Batch of 2 targets.
Target 1
Amino acid sequence: MALNYVWLALFGIGMLVGVLRLIFEGDTETLPAMMDSTFEMSMTAFELTIGLTGTLTLWMGILKVGEDSGLVARLSRLLSPVLTKLFPEIPKNHPALGSIFMNISANMLGLDNAATPVGLKAMQELQSINKDKASASNSMIMFLTLNTSGLTIIPVSIMAYRAKAGAADPTDVFIPLLLTTFCSTIVGLLVVSAYQKVNLLQKNILILFGIIALLVAALFTTIIGMSEAQMQGFCRVLTSVLILGAIFIFLFSGFRKRLNVYNSFIEGAKGGFHVAVSLIPYCVAILAAVGVFKASGALSMLQNGVSWFVSDVCGTNADFVGALPVALMKPLSGPGARGMMLECFTSFGPDSFVGHLASVLQGSTDTTFYILAIYFGSVGIKKYRHSVVCGLSADLAGMIAAVLFSYFFFGG
């Protein structure tokens, strides 16, 4: 229901602003631009979804091999002591635990192309044990909150965009971005745990966070002192090793079990196409509303209003407002937020305070409403319950942390 209100608000506010600009300013360009944006963003949504088909098909096939070979089940048994504490509704050793782990791992390593198919697979498995097929279960909400909080250890794509924009050191956002995503994840976990009465102060959960902290420390120790080129090369090699290694392990597990790996892959891959097609309406709905809101000028008005309030009313530093469009767009549209970040690079420079803040905001959280739309849409969930509140809580925490850490590391 909350997503319905947000969707209607984006359209409604955009339409209202467009009409008011026509009446009071005589602006005859805004309404046609809004109309054009609905078609452009609808096409963008279609192309985005169809472009996802190949990746979905590949990873759904790989996952099917892992299921048939028993590898996913073994992963589930290995992770049950930890994940069953966060997901008490999931039966012990259920395949969903393995898919959830792989999705979270892919997100942490910045492997978006691998994370989405695995996440959709996890949602299908969670739906299979969901008693109310139209309503999101507690496990689904916990899983999506971990997704929307966007915990990332290696922000490969952001560093690549900064390098392309000519940043003196594309990797200088690594530490503030890591701290920011950690804050958003902690807040998201706390909020969803409060709703679901999950005790986070348990031995297995604390061990998991300890392992994550050690991995982060090891990674930081490895890359500290590297030159820009060395770090970019290291991240590319590490990403390639992880993806190709995962594919090899899954295929080898099928071969070792004397499974007909090819047939198993084809059977799973068929589902990738159907999932991609089912996502089209949800992507079109979200991106079309975002296009109208932005084209109407409502986003710019909001930005100017915040700038006035912070600088003139509160009398505080308003340098962060230049990157505000990235923060506002991030929960709605990943491509939209990325476009705003690149616009900040062009207008202010990648090494400016706004350029740094835009980079940190881009990696602070994930696209909450987009994730909710496609993940819940893929399994026919209609009632989102407290998922929107949990996701937006993580978003807000990430935005605030991004601003604070950017002022600390880059001034303002």
Note: DSSP finds 17 helices and no strands in the chain.
Target 2
Amino acid sequence: MVLNYIWIAFILIAFVVGIIRLCMGDVEIVTAMVDSTFSSAKNGFEISLYLTGVLTLWLGIMKVGEAGGSVNLLSRLISPFFSRIFPGIPKGHPAMGSMVMNLSANMLGLDNAATPMGLKAMKEMQELNPDKEKATNAQIMFLVLNTSGLTIVPISIMAYRAQFGAANPADVFIPLLLTTFFSTLAGIIAVAAVQRINLLNRVVIAYLGGLSLLVASILYGAGHLPAESIKTYSTVASSVILLSVITGFVGLAAYRRVNVYDAFIEGAKDGFNTAIKIIPFLIAILVAVGLFRASGALDFIIECIRWIFSLFGTDTSFVDALPTAFMKPLSGSGARGFMLEAMTTYGADSFVGRLSCLFQGAADTTFYILAVYFGSVGIKDTRHAVACGLTADLAGIVAAILIGYLFFG
């Protein structure tokens, strides 16, 4: 429903702005807007075709990891932490396993695989809910963890960067990992503060402290390296980690005598089907975003923000990537459209192109997830879910800007 209103608003605003510019004597604006619809539709289809190969590859690899037990191993590593931040869920309850699998899939960048498990977890938590129309503390924490968008392997973003000719599509891997860490940490702290969850528990401190120390070490090391060296080390580290994931998944599956080839083929089929399904959605949003930009409406908004920041003597290079950040809480497809538009306009390896990718991966679609997850179990009173989710989104945006300047500025 939110995406419907956004899509209509983009087209209507673009039409109004186009008419105003036409009345002011800009006779070429109508032709430019019409041309943008055809070019955007073409881009959407070509991008979807490329994603077919990439998603087929990675969903095949992830299926191997699932069959070989790698994904289950990740779930077991996270479980002790989850039992502390979800005190309202009894130990051993089925909801815990579903939540771990959902967030594991999210961390691996498998949005389509994560959603079914997320809905299953929400349904299982609803069985513990005494007030069926009011969100429980556990449901809110789970939703905010989803909206914070913690991602270890940003498959789709790297695929898009490859499609747009990035010299190394994986060079945003480390910056994205850092950015999503901060948004997730902010979300956890916000929910814990409202729900009075003790984050000073030894297990919680061990998990969060260990991750924080790792992130701090990376940032400290990056801050003491020349700009060109940061990019080199980030690229090499990203490539090594990705290769390690693939090798680890295949190796463990082979060790456990899993038919690796058949498992890969089974997962690859899902990748093909997923890529085909997104074609109409991708074309629809790209056409709306293309019209909005071609009309000049987006440029007007961006210039207003740029003018405000320039008053304080701040570098305004990041402003051109802000449309992706503004759209992400409302619509993943809309934010993706702005990210792709940024890479088309400025280049995949430009600062704006890379920062748009960080914004896209910094958090998830807060309002969409809230509508789908809570709507699936009939919850009407969301309590503090929106406020905590948007807190995580804001932290992700700020972190993306700072980390973007550190690695690519």
Note: Residues 29-68 form the longest helix (40 residues).
